[in-house]
Amino acid sequence: MDITLDSRLISALGQRSGILRSLGPLGVLVALVAVSAVIAPGVIEVDSLLSFLSDAAPIIALVIGGTLPILTGSIDLSVAGVASLTGVLVVVLNPIFGPWTSAVVILIAMAFGAIQGFVHSWLQLPSFIVTLGTLSMLSGLALLLSNATAEPIPDNDIFVTFLSNSTAAIPNTIIALTVVVAVLGFLMRYLRLGRDIYALGTGERAAIMSAVNVVAVRTIIFAVSAGCAALAGLFLISITAFSSPTLAGNLLLLSIVGVVLGGTAISGGVGGLFPAVVGGLITSWLRIVTVIIGVQPTAQNIVFGLTALIAVALTTDRSKLGIIK
Question: Looking at residues 6-10, what average pLDDT do you find?
């Protein structure tokens, strides 16, 4: 009887912990918005919120893409390089592919991500090293192809033109991001891929024994991560109307901060798309808060760095890792 009661107590505590983990980030977002509204009431007006969501779309896209590898216990540090290179390729490849250039660039990014995931998984190389190396290569390639200069975006690209406009007063970047989240959410919930992703993050050896194809899963999720990063790059150039080889250079830290702030454990196995969206919103809103309270732009990375450390400390499952190295 005592054992049964203990097991029930442990189960209840686990459920409560899961609820707090899922609702905690949402509560933080609500609190941030409430505090900002008290200090600067104009930030919660409809036009301001729509403008915020449009500006936040690139970060949210990066957070969504970066969440998938982290759910499996890996990490993708190349997302900022993919986003920056995307803008450069839209300009460089436009004379060849014309109005369909952005679609081709997304496919190229996904192919690159698939290769990256395959190399990481098949050769058993740490994802940190693989993606850090490719981040350097992508950044260098963007500088090389653009001659280290910013270029205006061609006005004949169908998708970039669509993202630059609005539908019923709603920026099309928000609509596109919503569609991506809905599609990925459907795939994660109703396909075996979603279960395999969580299985890998919970315990890779157990997942392999359960017939999970580790190489295939990681190849797919790194392809999706790169595709989301390319989409973030298209969001950026649709807002700025120019491409730059360093356009997303400062977004890598923000994308990782967004993942952990949403409640996704850096050790893998815990999190999801909705937490990723919430984490991306928190990260984007933190930028507004830092401006409101007068933090200098040069000091904002200090705030985000401290936030990342705190968030990782709160979401890391030490019992699963055993020894922290």
Answer: 42
